[in-house]
Amino acid sequence: MDDGRGLETYQKGGSSTAGAMEAFTPRKIVQELDKFVIGQDNAKRMVAIALRNRWRRRQVPEELRDEIAPKNIIMIGPTGVGKTEIARRLAKLAQSPFLKVEASKFTEVGYVGRDVESMIRDLMEIGISMVRAEEHETLRAKAEEHAEEHLLDILLPMRSPRKPRNAQPRQTQELTDEMDVAQRTREKFRKMLRNGKLNDREVEIETQVSPIPVVEVFSPAGMEEMDINLKDMFSGLFPTKTKRRRVKVPEAMQMLVQEELSRLVDPDKVNKMARDRVEQMGIIFVDELDKIASAGASHLGPDVSREGVQRDLLPIIEGSTVNTKHGVVRTDHILFVAAGAFHVTKPSDLIPELQGRFPLRAELSALTREDFVRILTEPKNALVKQYEELLKTEGVTLEFAVEAVAEIAALAEEVNEKAENIGARRLHTIMEKLLEEISFQAPDMNGVTVKVTAQMVRERLQDIVASQDLSRYIL
Hints:
globular
């Protein structure tokens, strides 16, 4: 996480995040990805090298640093084999601003819809949220201290006793004693507040109310940024209003902490740190790139703006500047990872200039039965573990036999061959169908242990798998 040094550390060629990345060699990055994604070693190695190169770039002399451009990657493979998961886990590992977009959602300039520059604006918003959350974490202790004092002021509305003119020693002593009593009372209340003994008490606090009237504006697709900018513009025209509310002490404490955090966090510092992090470490995952590739020479119907979107993507990926409400963002060093099934089109159907912006290509293979077995059991977020923990909340113990897991994997492979091959996503539908009855009755099964056997899997799913028509709609 960022330690608050911000821009200065980047200018020196490093940051706390970069320092953390120093320990992540390509081999360790692949090991971390192996915890969540099964197989696809070639793609993992490629993205691990790309991530390590970002750290290496910040270590080279400054005059060469800006000349080293990121090597963008295209992942080619069928759906459900781990393309998105690899990119998402990579960004989480690097603590980088990460955005996933679908290329098919964009239109070229001149058509109604979202333009490609909106992805940079969205990434900037994500960067702002990340840095603000880190600043909140850093300043939370100080904010809680201020909020506690404010809440004690509300609970004990004291007036400072005035010392009368020409006060006698006796009067001065009485005032001192009165102040000591008030201080002891305040400390007593502080202790009760921290121990939760005042949680049922209600207090009246002032909260800020948005000065802008709430008016829903139904704007065309792609005009969301204009709505946000209008709200920001009008927010400065109306005076801030406050409203008195009666709430219980825990809620009041939470509201006061948020109010203190908003005062303590410097928005200019957050903007600078976020913009720098987006420019130096941002990752954009462009999914469905094959949907904007035009097969053949036909450009009729929905193909009309596909090449236009590709042309609009060129300057963003190569490096340009994009205006956002938080300032100008350079895209020169943002890493773009694109993905697509390319079962109807192929990468060579993209315009040559765009192909050149993605020099690295990783082919992901279709998943086998053995891969499905590993996906069900090995990753940290394995499906079997998820369902075991979900049903444990109801007091139901779920136990999967090894043979049952193998049978589920075999059925997933069989259905993928008969119907559309949707990769590992098929396991979600099969598991949900398999455990539907148990999930429904779980609240009434407290203390029961359910053993999932291969026979149980076959009994519940074999008829559906055997019927090709049913499996198309159910599995």
